[in-house]
Amino acid sequence: MIDIRKNWWIILIFLLANLTLSGCVIFSSANPDQLATPTPTEVTGIMVDVSGCEGLAGTLTMQILVGPSDIVEMEPVAVGDIPFMVVADGDSFNVKGGGPLNFDEQVHEADWGTYTVNFNADTTISGSCVPTDDGENLHLNIEMIGEQLVEVRAEGLQMDYPWSGTQEITVSFPAVEGAQEAAEGWSLILHINE
């Protein structure tokens, strides 16, 4: 017979060995799907492609030089913040938007008479957002339908120069805050909503 008081460490080893074997039996009979594996597993066949185009929205600040006004050293500019948004359509991302350009009548007064400029326009934005390795690009077509009237009053003469029509501007931007495009008579600045 073993004296428990003198051989307590043998009993402790026996109990620990018993617990260890019981644990091995419990885990070996467990469902293998419930066991954690030390190596990561790969999921195949599932592609998650989240495009930065999806949900993209913002405004284009558009400035148009209204004229011709060089002869009287005027630079009247129509300005508009034109909202746009990107709408997913299957695998493609379409850009839609539009809005007015604001312009207050401007008058140049001189000794010879007056030169007055009036302008009114609405814009429509269409195009696409294209994901690339470097980010997203916006390919936009801005259509502006407007009317302009230049009135010249000089020494009893009254001359009016009306214009109405449609102008189109085609541009491409990286979809980043502050991107700009400009040409003679117009400029565009891109603002992205957060």
Protein described:
By secondary structure, the protein is mainly β. It has one domain (57-192). 11% of the residues lie in helices and 55% in strands. The chain is built from 1 helix and 9 strands, in the order αβββββββββ.
Label this structure with key terms.
194 residues, mainly beta, 9-stranded antiparallel β-sheet, 1 helix, 55% strand
Question: Summarize this, please?
Answer:
The protein is mainly β and 194 residues long.
Radius of gyration: 36 Å
Can you write the helix and strand succession as a string?
HEEEEEEEEE
For the largest beta-sheet, the strand count, sense and barrel status come to: 9 strands, antiparallel
Assess the beta-strand content as a share of residues.
Answer: over 45%
Count of runs of 4 or more consecutive helical residues = 1
> What is the overall silhouette?
elongated
Please estimate the helix content.
10-25%
Q: Which residues sit in consecutive blocks of at least 5 with pLDDT less than 50?
A: 8-48
Structural class: mainly beta
The chain-level mean pLDDT equals 80
Number of domains: 1
Total strands: the figure is: 9
- Alpha-carbon distance between the two ends: 80 Å
